[in-house]
Amino acid sequence: MSKIVEGFSKLTKEEKIDWLVTHYFNDNKKSVQVLKTYWNTDVQLQKLHEEFAENTISNYYLPFSIAPNFLINDRQYALPMTIEESSVVAAASKAAKFWLQRGGFTAEVLNTEKVGQVHFTFDGAYKDLLTFFEKHKNHFFTGTKDLTANMEKRGGGILDIQLMDKSASIPGYYQLHCTFQTVDAMGANFINSCLERFADILLTESKNYMFFKEHKITVIMSILSNYVPNCIVKAQVSCAIKDLPNTNKLSSLGYAEKFKQAVDIAMVEPYRAVTHNKGIMNGIDALVLATGNDFRAVEAGVHAFAARDGVYKSLTNVTLTDDTFTFSIEIPLALGTVGGLTSLHPLVKLALELLQHPNAEELMQITAVAGLAQNFAAINSLITTGIQQGHMKMHLMNILNSLQASPTEKEKAITYFKKEPVSYSKAVSLLETLRN
Ligand code: MEV
């Protein structure tokens, strides 16, 4: 039977599920039951969630967790984190507490410029295109006044438009490279609307331009860029080296030096840098998701930034000067606290309330701190106990759930694994013993 369907989006939710039952589900009753278990009994709330995307048939839960005790620029925060990896929130909380006792985190936004481009081809000479552009540049601003009026009232708008000659890479390829200030909005819709208008203006003006009778501009596409190397936030922590952890195996100075070596390795070794930065993104994505921002945009931009010098490297840095340990991060984060999901998703609204209604710059600072804290926690484990001890302790609950452990069995297992390294096979044999 063919599994090709026409007009799927027009079917009701129930009809969509019926179609899946006919074509894809093996155990129909069970599959439909799973989907329905996640429907919210509050019909309005369910409808709200269904309308966030097309062809929705159920809801997909992720944990909404809290990492308390963050001190950022002398203000206390409990961070909302949406993430499925069991050790991340515990690690963030541990790092927050450690730095709370050492003056907390500081953070500052260095700049907030967003980027968008109109990509087009031109079959004439660049110097003629440049003359045309300079003559008409003002029209791009005046011709978008209806789109920019509101943003300008809030302190934002179009910053600049430049003509870029890219014909050395692809013959006849040029760009309008445009920069924007979008204040508290992530600004994707604003930027894309302006860019599409720029493209219209470019075409209309070029058709009316008498010197272009023989030449033609063709617009290929108009779209914002998620690469935002001038939308940067910096966060850092600092303390006396003597206040770093020490054990009988590793002095505080030894700890500081080993920590620096671990970060330096991620500066020069891309295999390590990718995992190092992945750990940073554990914290960042969790905040980005909880606050209803676009984690794919942030991920793409951050990794491009990490490779900006032609080598993929660490986003964090350590300096040891005199007696002081300083650990910092510089990262591009195009985030918004208005628009998008921020006024629609009840948990996103709650997350922003928890963060005391930050503006976009404050959210950039908090999010960068979450990344730095996560990286601190990861490196702290890696250079001391190793990562598995903490990971497997947190993963224990997933293992026990997958083995359908009862509440009493879970309690006994947790006590047992306080003294034993956690592994799947050990959990299986412990449950077998308990069950016999
Ligand atoms: C796991 O999700 C993240 C780490 O691998 C990060 C790192 O190695 O720095 C622990």
What features would you describe in this structure?
A four-stranded antiparallel sheet has the order 3-8-10-9. Helix 4 (88-100) packs across helix 12 (360-383), helix 8 packs across helix 9 and helix 9 (270-290) crosses helix 12. The chain has helices at 13-23, 28-37, 43-50, 88-100, 126-142, 145-153, 188-208, 252-268, 270-290, 295-306, 346-354, 360-383, 387-402, 407-416, 424-435, and strands spanning 64-72, 75-82, 106-109, 114-122, 157-165, 173-181, 217-225, 232-240, 316-321, 324-332. It is globular, with a radius of gyration of 26 Å. It has four domains: 8-50, no CATH class; 69-111 and 232-384, Alpha-Beta Complex (3-hydroxy-3-methylglutaryl-coenzyme A Reductase, Chain A, domain 2), CATH 3.90.770.10; 114-225, 2-Layer Sandwich (Alpha-Beta Plaits), CATH 3.30.70.420; 391-435, no CATH class. The model has no long low-confidence stretch (mean pLDDT 96). It has 436 residues and is α+β, with helices and mostly antiparallel strands. The chain is built from 15 helices and ten strands. The chain starts with 12 loop residues before the first helix and ends with a helix. (R)-mevalonate (MEV) is lined by residues 85, 275-276, 278-279, 282, 378, 382, 387. The site of (R)-mevalonate has 9 residues, from helix 9 and helix 12.
